[in-house]
Design a protein that fits this description.
Number of helices: 3
Helix content: 40-55%
Distance between the termini: 19 Å
Oligomer: single chain
Strand order of the largest sheet: 1-2-5
Largest sheet: 3 strands, antiparallel
Radius of gyration: 18 Å
Shape: extended
Structural class: alpha+beta
Order of helices and strands: HHEEEEEH
Strand content: 25-35%
Length: 97
């Protein structure tokens, strides 16, 4: 498997296709369904926990003063909601071995 910096939905679907032999279109539908489930869980509960993988949470960030690094111009960044991810202990253990 090639190591890439970014992985697209199509890349995940391709891996499922290669590993399990499902049709490429079905694999892409599976990936899209999983992502849709995560998004709807965040919308309804503000948190989605995937056992042995990690937890997605919504976090409210306050407005703050930011700076454009190129022009040094100060700009007010509005308050917003962001998605955070905390990896499970199993994932961290795997990555740190």
């Amino acid at each position: 498997m090639n190591i890439k910096k970014n992985i697209s939905r199509e890349d995940i679907a391709e891996t499922i296709n290669n590993e399990f032999g499902y049709a490429r279109k079905e694999c892409l539908e599976i990936v899209n369904d999983i992502i849709d489930i995560i998004i709807s869980g965040l919308e309804s509960n503000g948190m989605v926990k995937l056992h042995n993988f990690g937890t997605f949470k919504l976090k409210q960030k306050k407005s703050r003063l930011g700076r454009n690094p190129k022009t040094k111009e100060e700009v007010m960044i509005d308050d917003r909601i962001v998605v955070t991810f905390k990896a499970s202990k199993n994932i961290l253990k795997y990555l740190n071995t």
